[in-house]
Design goal:
alpha+beta, four-stranded antiparallel β-sheet, elongated
């Protein structure tokens, strides 16, 4: 069974958008192959925030930043020295972390158990589960976890509805095929 965490992709993309505003460097340049220092600092900061602060997998970060996984390993390995001795990197890193934290003002989790979470998603999103479906959409919110079963035909609309229901919450969404 293949699994993919789509909210991690979205989270790294949001970090790129924030870095674009802070560093005044367009996203397509941050994702480019450029090795100029003014481009490298935001790219490394995004990678390290995603990896160290959010626990996002190396492959996901590499794919969104259009790099290979080894680059993400390299950024993580050199983070401490870069933060200590490279003032541009340190300032960029701190500004991006502050911007991310200030933009994350989600609703508090008011669900008592997994069933409450699932009922909220199904009712608010008007989702119909497919008992014979082969696609599972797992939703994690704090310590709660629920699975929504759907089929390939309805997958896209079901996923969009789930994302709409949970846009105010800090939820993680995984897909299992």
């Amino acid at each position: 069974m293949k699994s993919k965490n789509i909210t991690d992709y979205d989270e790294v993309e949001k970090m790129i958008d924030i870095a674009e505003v802070i560093s005044k460097i367009p996203a397509y340049i941050i994702k480019s192959k450029s090795r100029r220092m003014e481009v490298l600092a935001p790219r490394m900061a995004i990678s390290n925030i995603a990896r160290l602060e959010r626990g996002i997998h190396y492959n996901t970060i590499a794919e969104v930043l259009c790099r290979d996984r080894c680059s993400v390993y390299h950024y993580e390995k050199n983070h401490e020295n870069n933060y200590k001795y490279w003032s541009d990197y340190r300032d960029t890193f701190n500004n991006i972390v502050l911007a991310i934290n200030s933009s994350k003002l989600e609703k508090p989790n008011n669900f008592n158990n997994n069933k409450d979470l699932k009922d909220f998603i199904i009712d608010r999103g008007r989702i119909f589960e497919s008992p014979n479906g082969k696609v599972f959409i797992s939703v994690r919110l704090d310590k709660l976890k629920t699975d929504i079963q759907t089929n390939y035909r309805d997958f896209s609309s079901t996923l969009s509805r789930i994302q709409y229901c949970l846009h105010d919450y800090n939820a993680k969404i995984d897909i299992s095929l």
